[in-house]
């Protein structure tokens, strides 16, 4: 059966407006719990979300630069985040940026677990240093969350304003369906598509024999490697059993990455279902540097009985595909293909 490009384009347009209309007048609450952000970005972020039909609240942005360059003191940052998590009016909590400092908030967050659980579930969106908060939310509160782009990036501030006529004229609608995973035209729409419909990403490269088995299933967890590693052997670390672990990082040399991966290789009682590596090489790089990072990961994989995959389309690079942390994920590897796919159902 032949499917015309016109049909595909029409389907994509319908999906876009279905998603947009279903979230019309929803409010995105901006928050920042890590490093200081550029306050001149906030009006641009606010306008970008309004262009998508959302209301925006900045009531949880209260930047009073700390001595360490965080948005505020540990106490104030924790208090602010806890207030947002307890607020039953909040549905979408989008982090402005990552950086560092979120790990410091875990003691105060753990002290409020019972009260936070009484609140309505929220969708937290962010990555990088937000990994520590995702880990708390997924493991202690039991909410799912989105590993995706923080708000203070060009991906958000320059998100296209799409009108019906523009959708008819521009090729982006069919490109989103037909192009490879590295295509990322509209991050905001992509994240809400993930929430409503789940994900299906092709192009995971299996790096060891264990990864070439037909099918794996587990709960998705992880994010930034530095934050994941920092949780090791602390009172806040939880079992990695039956988990599919995402790992990405930036500003880590290939030698440092090799050392970190050896720590994971030597770690006791570490039995995730699979590990999926995202981007580690710098954004401005060359083929030689990109390939040496890949080789470090491949060397780790070949020494490991855990299935290891390479998918450099999430992390701090040009493309940061969203995932549902705390949600079930399935990895399938067709026998006649060099690549595998990862699936998640809707939020």
From TrEMBL:
Gene3D superfamilies: Class I glutamine amidotransferase-like, LD-carboxypeptidase A C-terminal domain-like. GO terms for biological process: proteolysis. Keywords: Carboxypeptidase, Hydrolase, Protease, Serine protease, Signal. Coiled coil: none annotated. The keyword Electron transport does not apply. Residues 217-331 form the LD-carboxypeptidase C-terminal domain. InterPro entries: Carboxypeptidase_A_C_sf (IPR027461), Class_I_gatase-like (IPR029062), LdcA_N (IPR027478), Peptidase_S66_N (IPR040449), Peptidase_S66C (IPR040921), S66_fam (IPR003507). Residues 28-148 form the LD-carboxypeptidase N-terminal domain. Residues 1-24 form the signal peptide. The active site is at residues 128, 248, 316. It comes from the Bacteria. The keyword Protease applies. GO terms for molecular function: carboxypeptidase activity; serine-type peptidase activity. It holds the Pfam family Peptidase_S66. Belongs to the peptidase S66 family. PANTHER family: MURAMOYLTETRAPEPTIDE CARBOXYPEPTIDASE, MUREIN TETRAPEPTIDE CARBOXYPEPTIDASE. This is LD-carboxypeptidase.
């Amino acid at each position: 059966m032949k499917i015309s490009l016109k049909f595909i384009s029409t389907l994509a347009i319908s999906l876009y407006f279905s998603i947009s209309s279903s979230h019309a007048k929803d409010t995105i609450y901006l928050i920042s719990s890590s490093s200081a952000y550029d306050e001149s970005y906030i009006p641009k972020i606010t306008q970008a979300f309004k262009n998508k039909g959302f209301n925006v609240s900045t009531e949880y942005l209260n930047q009073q630069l700390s001595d360490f360059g965080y948005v505020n003191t540990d106490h104030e940052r924790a208090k602010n985040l806890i207030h947002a998590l307890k607020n039953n009016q909040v549905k979408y909590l989008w982090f402005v940026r990552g950086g560092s400092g979120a790990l410091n908030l875990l003691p105060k967050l753990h002290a409020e677990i019972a009260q936070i659980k009484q609140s309505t579930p929220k969708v937290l969106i962010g990555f990088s240093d937000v990994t520590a908060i995702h880990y708390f939310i997924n493991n202690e509160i039991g909410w799912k969350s989105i590993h995706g782009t923080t708000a203070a990036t060009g991906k958000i501030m320059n998100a296209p304003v799409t009108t019906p006529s523009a959708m008819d004229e521009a090729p982006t609608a069919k490109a989103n369906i037909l192009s490879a995973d590295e295509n990322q035209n509209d991050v905001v729409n992509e994240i809400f598509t993930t929430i409503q419909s789940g994900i299906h990403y092709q192009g995971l490269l299996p790096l060891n024999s264990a990864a070439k088995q037909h099918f794996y299933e587990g709960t998705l967890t992880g994010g930034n490697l530095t934050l994941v590693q920092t949780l090791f052997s602390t009172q806040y670390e939880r079992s990695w059993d039956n988990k599919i672990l995402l790992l990405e990082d930036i500003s880590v040399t290939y030698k440092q990455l090799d050392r970190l991966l050896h720590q994971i290789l030597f770690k006791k009682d570490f039995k995730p279902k699979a590990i999926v590596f995202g981007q580690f090489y710098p954004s401005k790089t060359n083929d030689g540097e990109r390939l040496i990072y890949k080789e470090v990961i491949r060397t780790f994989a070949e020494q490991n009985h855990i299935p290891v995959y390479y998918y450099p389309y999430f992390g701090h690079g040009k493309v940061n595909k969203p995932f549902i942390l705390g949600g079930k994920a399935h990895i399938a590897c067709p026998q006649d293909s060099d690549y595998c796919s990862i699936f998640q159902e809707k939020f």
